[in-house]
Amino acid sequence: MNRATLTAISAALLALAPLAAQPQAQPHSAPMVERYGKPYVMVTVNGRGPYRFVIDTGTGGDALITPELATELALPTVGQATLSDPSGQGARKVPIVQIDSLSLAGVEFPNIRAIQHTFPAEAGSAQGLLGFTLFRDLLLTLDFPNRRVLLDTGALEPDGNKSVFPFRMPSGTPIARINIGGQPTDAQLDSGGGGLVLPAGLAARLKYDVDPVPFAAGQSICTRFEIKMGRLASDVKLGRYTFNHPVVEVHPAFPLVNFGSPPMQMFAITFDQKNLLVRFHSDQRRFTLQAPPSPPRMTNSVNQQLPPPDLVPVG
Fold it and tell me: Which residue of 49, 233, 265, 282 has the fewest CB atoms within a 10 Å radius of its CB?
Protein backbone atom coordinates (compact mmCIF):
# COMPACT_ATOMS: atom_id res chain seq x y z
CA MET A 1 0.00 0.00 0.00
CA ASN A 2 1.01 3.65 -0.32
CA ARG A 3 3.70 4.29 2.30
CA ALA A 4 3.06 8.02 2.49
CA THR A 5 -0.69 7.61 2.89
CA LEU A 6 -0.56 4.72 5.32
CA THR A 7 1.99 6.34 7.62
CA ALA A 8 -0.61 9.01 8.18
CA ILE A 9 -3.29 6.40 8.69
CA SER A 10 -1.09 4.52 11.19
CA ALA A 11 -0.80 7.29 13.73
CA ALA A 12 -4.33 8.56 13.19
CA LEU A 13 -5.89 5.21 13.88
CA LEU A 14 -3.63 4.52 16.84
CA ALA A 15 -5.01 7.62 18.54
CA LEU A 16 -8.64 6.56 18.14
CA ALA A 17 -8.43 3.66 20.68
CA PRO A 18 -11.63 1.73 19.83
CA LEU A 19 -12.90 -1.26 21.76
CA ALA A 20 -11.03 -4.53 21.22
CA ALA A 21 -12.40 -7.78 19.84
CA GLN A 22 -13.49 -10.39 22.33
CA PRO A 23 -11.17 -13.42 22.60
CA GLN A 24 -12.36 -16.51 20.75
CA ALA A 25 -12.44 -20.02 22.25
CA GLN A 26 -11.50 -21.79 18.98
CA PRO A 27 -9.13 -20.87 16.16
CA HIS A 28 -10.68 -19.26 13.11
CA SER A 29 -9.45 -19.39 9.54
CA ALA A 30 -10.30 -17.75 6.23
CA PRO A 31 -8.85 -17.71 2.71
CA MET A 32 -6.22 -15.07 1.99
CA VAL A 33 -5.79 -13.95 -1.61
CA GLU A 34 -2.49 -12.53 -2.81
CA ARG A 35 -2.37 -9.47 -5.05
CA TYR A 36 1.04 -7.88 -5.77
CA GLY A 37 2.26 -10.04 -2.91
CA LYS A 38 -0.09 -8.48 -0.36
CA PRO A 39 -2.73 -10.36 1.70
CA TYR A 40 -6.39 -9.69 0.91
CA VAL A 41 -9.37 -11.13 2.79
CA MET A 42 -13.15 -10.87 2.67
CA VAL A 43 -14.91 -9.17 5.57
CA THR A 44 -18.44 -8.07 6.47
CA VAL A 45 -19.15 -4.56 7.72
CA ASN A 46 -22.25 -3.92 9.83
CA GLY A 47 -23.58 -7.28 8.65
CA ARG A 48 -23.22 -6.45 4.96
CA GLY A 49 -20.79 -7.70 2.35
CA PRO A 50 -18.51 -9.48 1.98
CA TYR A 51 -16.05 -6.78 1.02
CA ARG A 52 -12.42 -7.07 0.00
CA PHE A 53 -9.91 -5.66 2.51
CA VAL A 54 -6.12 -5.87 2.72
CA ILE A 55 -4.39 -6.82 5.97
CA ASP A 56 -1.58 -4.33 6.52
CA THR A 57 0.65 -4.85 9.55
CA GLY A 58 2.41 -1.61 8.62
CA THR A 59 -0.67 0.44 9.49
CA GLY A 60 -0.78 1.13 13.22
CA GLY A 61 -4.51 1.33 13.72
CA ASP A 62 -7.68 -0.67 13.27
CA ALA A 63 -9.20 0.10 9.88
CA LEU A 64 -9.35 2.26 6.79
CA ILE A 65 -12.37 2.39 4.50
CA THR A 66 -12.85 3.94 1.07
CA PRO A 67 -15.23 6.90 0.69
CA GLU A 68 -17.33 4.83 -1.72
CA LEU A 69 -17.95 2.04 0.80
CA ALA A 70 -18.53 4.51 3.63
CA THR A 71 -21.23 6.16 1.50
CA GLU A 72 -22.76 2.81 0.48
CA LEU A 73 -23.05 1.79 4.14
CA ALA A 74 -24.12 5.27 5.29
CA LEU A 75 -21.43 5.25 7.98
CA PRO A 76 -21.69 8.25 10.30
CA THR A 77 -18.78 10.66 10.56
CA VAL A 78 -17.61 10.92 14.17
CA GLY A 79 -14.52 13.08 13.86
CA GLN A 80 -11.58 14.19 11.75
CA ALA A 81 -7.91 13.30 11.45
CA THR A 82 -5.21 15.55 10.03
CA LEU A 83 -2.78 14.05 7.53
CA SER A 84 0.44 16.00 7.09
CA ASP A 85 3.83 15.71 5.42
CA PRO A 86 6.86 15.11 7.69
CA SER A 87 8.37 18.27 6.21
CA GLY A 88 5.45 20.24 7.66
CA GLN A 89 4.67 21.66 4.24
CA GLY A 90 1.10 20.47 3.97
CA ALA A 91 -1.92 19.08 5.77
CA ARG A 92 -5.15 17.38 4.82
CA LYS A 93 -8.30 16.72 6.85
CA VAL A 94 -9.95 13.31 6.47
CA PRO A 95 -13.13 11.98 8.13
CA ILE A 96 -13.28 9.36 10.87
CA VAL A 97 -16.33 7.10 10.48
CA GLN A 98 -18.00 4.70 12.89
CA ILE A 99 -18.26 0.96 12.10
CA ASP A 100 -20.48 -0.87 14.59
CA SER A 101 -19.26 -4.33 13.66
CA LEU A 102 -16.58 -5.79 11.40
CA SER A 103 -16.26 -9.56 10.96
CA LEU A 104 -13.36 -11.64 9.62
CA ALA A 105 -13.14 -15.46 9.69
CA GLY A 106 -16.06 -15.64 12.10
CA VAL A 107 -14.46 -13.20 14.57
CA GLU A 108 -16.43 -10.03 15.28
CA PHE A 109 -14.64 -6.76 16.05
CA PRO A 110 -17.09 -4.22 17.52
CA ASN A 111 -17.08 -0.44 17.64
CA ILE A 112 -14.39 0.40 15.07
CA ARG A 113 -13.52 4.01 14.28
CA ALA A 114 -12.00 3.98 10.80
CA ILE A 115 -10.19 6.56 8.70
CA GLN A 116 -12.04 7.30 5.46
CA HIS A 117 -9.49 7.67 2.69
CA THR A 118 -9.06 6.91 -1.01
CA PHE A 119 -6.98 3.83 -1.80
CA PRO A 120 -4.04 3.96 -4.24
CA ALA A 121 -4.51 2.35 -7.65
CA GLU A 122 -2.37 -0.61 -6.56
CA ALA A 123 -5.17 -1.77 -4.27
CA GLY A 124 -7.43 -2.42 -7.25
CA SER A 125 -10.95 -3.15 -6.10
CA ALA A 126 -10.11 -3.30 -2.37
CA GLN A 127 -12.65 -1.42 -0.29
CA GLY A 128 -10.80 -1.21 2.99
CA LEU A 129 -7.79 -2.04 5.10
CA LEU A 130 -7.34 -3.89 8.39
CA GLY A 131 -4.53 -2.39 10.46
CA PHE A 132 -2.24 -4.14 12.93
CA THR A 133 -3.86 -3.04 16.19
CA LEU A 134 -7.22 -4.50 15.19
CA PHE A 135 -5.73 -7.85 16.25
CA ARG A 136 -4.41 -6.70 19.64
CA ASP A 137 -6.27 -9.41 21.60
CA LEU A 138 -5.63 -12.34 19.25
CA LEU A 139 -2.84 -14.29 17.66
CA LEU A 140 -2.78 -13.20 14.01
CA THR A 141 -1.21 -15.64 11.55
CA LEU A 142 -0.61 -14.69 7.94
CA ASP A 143 0.11 -18.07 6.33
CA PHE A 144 1.40 -16.95 2.94
CA PRO A 145 2.38 -20.41 1.58
CA ASN A 146 -1.11 -21.81 2.30
CA ARG A 147 -2.95 -18.55 1.57
CA ARG A 148 -4.81 -18.51 4.90
CA VAL A 149 -5.31 -16.02 7.71
CA LEU A 150 -5.80 -17.52 11.16
CA LEU A 151 -7.10 -15.87 14.34
CA ASP A 152 -6.56 -17.66 17.63
CA THR A 153 -6.09 -17.22 21.38
CA GLY A 154 -3.03 -18.28 23.31
CA ALA A 155 0.55 -17.01 23.39
CA LEU A 156 3.89 -17.47 21.70
CA GLU A 157 6.92 -18.71 23.62
CA PRO A 158 10.49 -17.44 23.07
CA ASP A 159 12.90 -19.92 21.45
CA GLY A 160 16.23 -18.15 21.70
CA ASN A 161 15.66 -16.00 18.60
CA LYS A 162 15.65 -18.98 16.24
CA SER A 163 12.18 -18.36 14.80
CA VAL A 164 10.42 -16.34 17.54
CA PHE A 165 11.55 -12.75 17.98
CA PRO A 166 10.60 -9.81 20.18
CA PHE A 167 9.20 -6.71 18.56
CA ARG A 168 8.20 -3.25 19.69
CA MET A 169 5.32 -1.02 18.63
CA PRO A 170 6.31 2.67 18.92
CA SER A 171 3.60 3.75 16.46
CA GLY A 172 1.33 0.72 16.60
CA THR A 173 3.31 -1.27 14.02
CA PRO A 174 5.73 -4.17 14.65
CA ILE A 175 9.45 -3.39 14.53
CA ALA A 176 11.92 -6.28 15.00
CA ARG A 177 15.67 -6.72 14.68
CA ILE A 178 17.15 -8.28 11.54
CA ASN A 179 20.76 -8.58 10.39
CA ILE A 180 21.84 -6.93 7.13
CA GLY A 181 25.41 -7.46 6.00
CA GLY A 182 26.45 -8.31 9.55
CA GLN A 183 24.76 -5.20 10.98
CA PRO A 184 21.82 -5.67 13.40
CA THR A 185 19.14 -3.14 12.49
CA ASP A 186 15.50 -2.38 13.19
CA ALA A 187 12.97 -3.32 10.51
CA GLN A 188 9.26 -2.68 10.24
CA LEU A 189 7.34 -5.90 9.50
CA ASP A 190 4.93 -4.61 6.90
CA SER A 191 2.54 -6.90 5.02
CA GLY A 192 1.45 -3.87 3.00
CA GLY A 193 5.03 -3.04 2.01
CA GLY A 194 6.39 -3.52 -1.46
CA GLY A 195 9.79 -5.15 -0.91
CA LEU A 196 12.88 -5.19 1.29
CA VAL A 197 13.45 -1.45 1.58
CA LEU A 198 16.55 0.25 3.02
CA PRO A 199 16.89 3.85 4.20
CA ALA A 200 19.53 5.79 2.31
CA GLY A 201 21.90 6.11 5.27
CA LEU A 202 22.12 2.36 5.83
CA ALA A 203 22.23 1.62 2.09
CA ALA A 204 25.29 3.85 1.69
CA ARG A 205 27.27 1.71 4.16
CA LEU A 206 26.61 -1.60 2.40
CA LYS A 207 28.32 -3.35 -0.52
CA TYR A 208 26.52 -4.54 -3.64
CA ASP A 209 26.76 -7.18 -6.35
CA VAL A 210 24.70 -4.76 -8.47
CA ASP A 211 24.86 -1.13 -7.39
CA PRO A 212 21.52 0.61 -6.77
CA VAL A 213 20.14 2.33 -9.86
CA PRO A 214 17.02 4.51 -10.31
CA PHE A 215 13.94 2.33 -10.62
CA ALA A 216 10.84 4.37 -9.77
CA ALA A 217 9.60 7.60 -8.22
CA GLY A 218 8.00 7.93 -4.81
CA GLN A 219 5.67 10.69 -3.70
CA SER A 220 4.23 11.93 -0.44
CA ILE A 221 1.66 14.71 -0.11
CA CYS A 222 4.27 17.38 -0.87
CA THR A 223 7.47 15.61 -1.88
CA ARG A 224 8.69 13.54 -4.80
CA PHE A 225 11.88 11.49 -4.63
CA GLU A 226 13.77 8.79 -6.46
CA ILE A 227 13.64 5.08 -5.53
CA LYS A 228 16.65 2.94 -6.39
CA MET A 229 17.06 -0.83 -6.60
CA GLY A 230 20.17 -3.02 -6.32
CA ARG A 231 21.44 -6.44 -5.21
CA LEU A 232 23.35 -6.75 -1.95
CA ALA A 233 26.76 -8.40 -1.83
CA SER A 234 25.86 -9.80 1.59
CA ASP A 235 23.03 -11.77 3.18
CA VAL A 236 20.05 -10.67 5.24
CA LYS A 237 19.42 -12.87 8.27
CA LEU A 238 16.35 -13.34 10.44
CA GLY A 239 17.19 -15.86 13.15
CA ARG A 240 17.72 -19.23 11.46
CA TYR A 241 16.56 -17.88 8.09
CA THR A 242 18.81 -16.33 5.43
CA PHE A 243 18.09 -14.30 2.28
CA ASN A 244 21.02 -14.81 -0.10
CA HIS A 245 22.26 -11.50 -1.56
CA PRO A 246 18.70 -10.16 -1.95
CA VAL A 247 17.45 -7.45 -4.27
CA VAL A 248 16.66 -4.37 -2.16
CA GLU A 249 15.05 -0.99 -2.69
CA VAL A 250 16.58 2.24 -1.42
CA HIS A 251 14.21 5.00 -0.30
CA PRO A 252 15.78 8.25 0.88
CA ALA A 253 12.66 9.44 2.73
CA PHE A 254 12.29 6.81 5.46
CA PRO A 255 14.24 6.15 8.65
CA LEU A 256 13.83 2.36 9.02
CA VAL A 257 14.24 -0.82 7.01
CA ASN A 258 10.90 -2.04 5.70
CA PHE A 259 10.50 -5.84 5.60
CA GLY A 260 7.54 -5.92 3.23
CA SER A 261 5.26 -8.49 1.69
CA PRO A 262 7.75 -10.04 -0.84
CA PRO A 263 10.11 -11.36 1.87
CA MET A 264 7.09 -12.25 4.03
CA GLN A 265 5.84 -14.53 1.22
CA MET A 266 8.22 -17.27 2.33
CA PHE A 267 6.64 -17.71 5.77
CA ALA A 268 3.66 -18.34 7.97
CA ILE A 269 4.01 -15.38 10.36
CA THR A 270 2.25 -15.24 13.74
CA PHE A 271 2.00 -11.99 15.72
CA ASP A 272 1.35 -11.97 19.48
CA GLN A 273 0.76 -8.34 20.44
CA LYS A 274 0.09 -9.08 24.11
CA ASN A 275 3.57 -10.53 24.56
CA LEU A 276 5.27 -8.56 21.76
CA LEU A 277 6.52 -11.67 20.00
CA VAL A 278 6.45 -12.73 16.35
CA ARG A 279 7.09 -16.21 14.94
CA PHE A 280 8.36 -16.95 11.43
CA HIS A 281 7.84 -20.51 10.18
CA SER A 282 9.14 -22.08 6.97
CA ASP A 283 10.38 -25.51 5.96
CA GLN A 284 13.24 -23.77 4.13
CA ARG A 285 16.20 -21.99 5.68
CA ARG A 286 17.63 -20.06 2.73
CA PHE A 287 15.75 -17.88 0.26
CA THR A 288 16.25 -15.85 -2.91
CA LEU A 289 14.56 -12.46 -3.08
CA GLN A 290 14.17 -10.90 -6.52
CA ALA A 291 12.55 -7.62 -7.56
CA PRO A 292 9.00 -6.97 -6.26
CA PRO A 293 6.10 -8.24 -8.40
CA SER A 294 5.18 -4.71 -9.49
CA PRO A 295 7.02 -1.36 -9.67
CA PRO A 296 7.38 -0.23 -6.06
CA ARG A 297 4.96 2.34 -4.72
CA MET A 298 5.11 4.26 -1.51
CA THR A 299 4.17 1.91 1.31
CA ASN A 300 4.38 2.39 5.06
CA SER A 301 6.93 4.28 7.08
CA VAL A 302 7.36 4.68 10.81
CA ASN A 303 7.57 7.77 12.97
CA GLN A 304 10.15 7.54 15.71
CA GLN A 305 8.06 9.87 17.92
CA LEU A 306 4.36 9.44 18.58
CA PRO A 307 2.58 12.46 17.03
CA PRO A 308 -0.13 14.52 18.69
CA PRO A 309 -3.48 12.75 18.10
CA ASP A 310 -4.78 15.63 15.96
CA LEU A 311 -1.69 15.94 13.76
CA VAL A 312 -0.77 12.88 11.75
CA PRO A 313 2.49 12.89 9.77
CA VAL A 314 2.62 11.37 6.31
CA GLY A 315 5.86 9.88 4.91
Answer: 233
3-state secondary structure of 284: coil
Taking phi first (over 0 means left), then psi (-120 to 50 degrees means alpha), and beta for anything else, what does residue 12 get?
A: alpha
Cα end-to-end distance, the chain, whole Å: 12
Q: Do 229 and 274 form a contact (C-beta atoms < 8 A)?
A: no
Tell me which residue range forms the domain holding 258. 164-287
Closest CA to 220 of 298, 272, 273: 298
Q: Residue 297 domain-assigned?
A: no
For the domain that residue 124 is a member of, what is the CATH number?
2.40.70.10
The 3-state DSSP class for residue 209 equals strand
Residues 209 and 119 in one domain: no
Q: Which of 283, 271, 253 is nearest to 39 (CA)?
A: 271
Inside any domain, residue 15: yes
Are 27 and 128 part of one and the same domain? yes
DSSP assignment, residue 223?
A: -
Q: By C-alpha distance, which of 112, 101, 169, 104 is closest to 140?
A: 104
What count of other Cβ atoms lies within 10 Å of the Cβ of residue 162? Answer: 12
Q: How far apart are alpha carbons 189 and 240 in whole angstroms?
A: 17
Torsion of CA 175, 65, 119, 152, to 10 degrees: 40
pLDDT digits (tens, 9 = 90+) for 265-300: 999 999 999 999 999 999 999 999 987 655 444 333
Number of domains in the chain: 2
Query: How many CA atoms lie within 13 Å of 202's alpha carbon, on the beta-carbon side?
Result: 24
pTM (2 decimals)? Answer: 0.82
Whether 61 maps to a domain, the answer reads yes
Write the pLDDT tens digit of every residue in 210-256. 999 988 776 554 456 678 999 999 999 999 999 999 999 998 777 89
